Amino acid sequence: MLKQFSPDKMLKTPFGITAEHLREMGKTTILTDLDNTLLAWDQLDATDEVINWFTILEAEGIKVMILSNNNEMRVERVAKAARIPFLAKAKKPLAGNFKKAMEALDATPEETIMIGDQIMTDIWGGNRQQLYTIFVKPVKETDGFITKFNRMMERMILKSLRKKTNLKWEDSL
C-alpha cells in the first residue's frame, strides 16, 4: 500500500533539477505543483529563481507546465510571468488533468516527471499515472487550511516510508 505514496526521489528543492539530469533519465517533460513547491503558498508573484529555472529548462528543450489545485487567477499570475503553460483547479490526485497536461505537452508518462510538496496530491497522483515523482520540501512551514489535513496524513506515511525504504532528502537528481 505504501508504494502508491512513495516518491521516486526526495529533494530539498526542485531548482537542482537540470535538463542534463533529465535527459540522462530519458525525461523530457516536467509537471510541477506551484504552492509550497516553487513558491510559498501565500506569495503572489513568481521569483527570479522560478522564472530563471523555467527559462533555462525550456531553452534546453525540456517542456514544463504548472499543474496546481489552486484557482486560475493565482496560477495564471505566476505562469504568465514565467511564460509557461498551466492547468489550475487540477483536482490532484485525480487522473484527468495529469492526462490533459501530458496531452497538451505531447508527452508520455515514461518521459514525464511530477514535482510536488504533497504526498497526498502530487506524489499519489503522479504515481497513479506511472510518472517519475519527486517530493520536495515545502518552501514554507505553514500551509493553507485545506492542506493541514493532508500534512497530518503525510507525516504518518513518511514515517512508515523511512522505516521501509532508503529515501532521504537529497540536493539533486
Total domains, how many?
Answer: 1
Strand order of the largest sheet: 4-3-2-5-6-1-7
In CATH, what is the homologous superfamily?
HAD superfamily/HAD-like
Estimate what percentage of residues fall within beta strands: 15-25%
What tags apply to this protein structure?
173 residues, Rossmann fold, seven-stranded parallel beta sheet, 6 helices
Structural account:
The chain is an alpha/beta fold. The chain has one domain: HAD superfamily/HAD-like (Rossmann fold, 3-Layer(aba) Sandwich), CATH 3.40.50. The model has no long low-confidence stretch (mean pLDDT 91). The longest helix has 20 residues, at 145-164. Strand 2 (29-32), helix 2 and strand 3 form a beta-alpha-beta unit. It has helices at 19-25, 48-59, 72-82, 96-104, 119-128, 145-164; strands at residues 9-11, 29-32, 63-67, 86-87, 112-116, 132-136, 169-170. 40% of the residues lie in helices and 15% in strands.
